[in-house]
Specification:
Elements lengths: L2 E7 L2 H16 L3 E11 L5 E4 L4 H19 L3 H18 L6 H10 L5 E10 L1 H7 L8 E5 L3 H23 L1
């Protein structure tokens, strides 16, 4: 099971930017993510979940493919594709991989209006290298919640504090 880390940001744009950078770091094999969701608490009170993967769309595409294939076997590919896409979309909409949506909505409700959080389910990471790469965001990053051990959480907080100090020193010089 992955490690849950919830980071708070002053706005959705920065949370989205950090998520994009983490995907790049994943390609460099510095982090392996199971899920990365941006949660936004809009000023009017609505909570929005910005999933990294749209399971409904993925299910529709997959179902459409398999439906067409089955339809070809029964000489009616259009009906097969339509039924397959519908079933695939329905199963994709009911699938909840990664971080539980109920938990994500609770996080969103706890955020202040206009604020955002980046909720990560991390398989593995080279923590110090990841934080080094994301140092410019450290001044705005707040560790909101984690399921790490107390020792690992303290180490992560220490690394974030060091990155904040380094970012501040670079900004002042």
């Amino acid at each position: 099971m992955g490690q849950l880390i919830v980071l708070g940001y002053p706005d959705a744009a920065e949370a989205e930017e950090v998520r994009r950078e983490l995907v790049g770091l994943q390609q460099d094999h510095l982090i392996a993510l199971e899920d990365a969701v941006v949660v936004v608490h809009h000023s009017e009170g609505k909570v929005e979940l910005r999933q990294a993967l749209n399971l409904t769309a993925a299910g529709a595409v997959s179902g459409g493919f398999w439906g067409t294939l089955v339809g070809l076997l029964f000489l009616n590919p259009l009906v097969g594709a339509a039924v397959g896409a519908g079933v695939g979309a329905a199963s994709g909409a009911m699938t909840d991989l990664g971080i539980n949506d109920g938990f994500l909505k609770e996080v969103g409700e706890a955020l202040g209006p206009g604020k955002a959080a980046l909720c990560l389910l991390v398989k593995e990471a080279t923590t110090d290298r990841v934080i080094e790469k994301l140092r410019r965001h450290a001044g705005h990053t707040q560790l909101l919640q984690t399921n790490l051990s107390h020792t690992d959480e303290d180490h992560l907080k220490e690394l974030l504090d060091q990155a904040k100090q380094q970012a501040e020193a670079l900004r002042l010089s």
